[in-house]
């Protein structure tokens, strides 16, 4: 049987990682592991992890490395990941997380990752984040200027409530961009120097970005 893939989506908040992630997992059959979704789930469920994470998330800051590394390590050790492979969305976000991930992949005998760097300007992501809307029911991602859906509307896919993430408000967006530039952007160089990066221009329609992502991935992974 072919080795299950490990795919990392790198890119600033709002680069379109969540949107492309859904399409990639459909194509490659791997599991979608989004640390942001896992943490938001913990916040909604009111768990101890959620209570701890919420204060960092609302401020646009990163949840401490040891907490996030712990939840990813547990998830990657599960049998379904070993069988189907994984797409990591929003992890790693610091050099310490990247080092920890390398060690975990070795521990659980998963291959080196393929890293898709979704490149987009800061101006564009600030615009996208401030108009981003989500569905509470199915997690679909919309944009006020693209689909015209706003807070309180019904999701066209599942009739769930459309909402705006607390960290998609102006002040948190500014903080998240600062954090991204200081802590996450250096990961491009980290993976570049290991020959693992696929650079993709993430500007344009969802479809055209998806064509570029799929073309880059299939060169590396086949399929
Ligand atoms: P995201 O949905 O990926 O934009 O993540 C939303 C928020 O969750 C981030 O702004 C962080 O507060 C937190 N978070 C998600 N992933 C990580 C991570 N790998 N490391 C630290 N914090 C994270």
Would you mind describing this structure in some detail?
With 223 residues, this protein is of the alpha/beta class. The chain is 52% helix and 15% strand. The protein has a five-stranded parallel sheet, sandwiched between helices. It has a three-stranded antiparallel sheet with strand order 6-5-7. 34% of the residues are buried. Bound molecules: adenosine monophosphate (AMP).
**CATH fold group of one domain:** Rossmann fold
Low-confidence stretches: none
| Strand/helix succession | EHEHHHHEHEHEEHEHHEH
Q: Roughly how much helix do the residues carry, as a percent range?
A: 40-55%
Largest beta sheet: what is the strand line-up? Answer: 2-3-1-4-8
Main β-sheet, in a few words?
A: 5 strands, parallel
Essential attributes:
223 residues, Rossmann fold, three-stranded antiparallel β-sheet, binds adenosine monophosphate
Task: Briefly say what this structure is.
By secondary structure, the protein is an alpha/beta fold. The protein has a domain of 153 residues: Rossmann fold.
Topology:
Layout: E1 6-11, H1 17-28, E2 31-34, H2 35-45, H3 48-58, H4 65-76, H5 79-84, E3 86-89, H6 95-107, E4 114-119, H7 122-130, E5 132-135, E6 141-143, H8 144-147, E7 162-163, H9 170-184, H10 186-192, E8 197-201, H11 206-221
Parallel strand pairs: 1-3, 1-4, 2-3, 4-8
Antiparallel strand pairs: 5-6, 5-7
Helix pairs in contact: 1-11, 2-3, 4-6, 7-9
The structure holds adenosine monophosphate (AMP).
Adenosine monophosphate binds at residues 13, 35-36, 39, 56-57, 60-63, 68, 90-91, 93, 97, 167, 176.
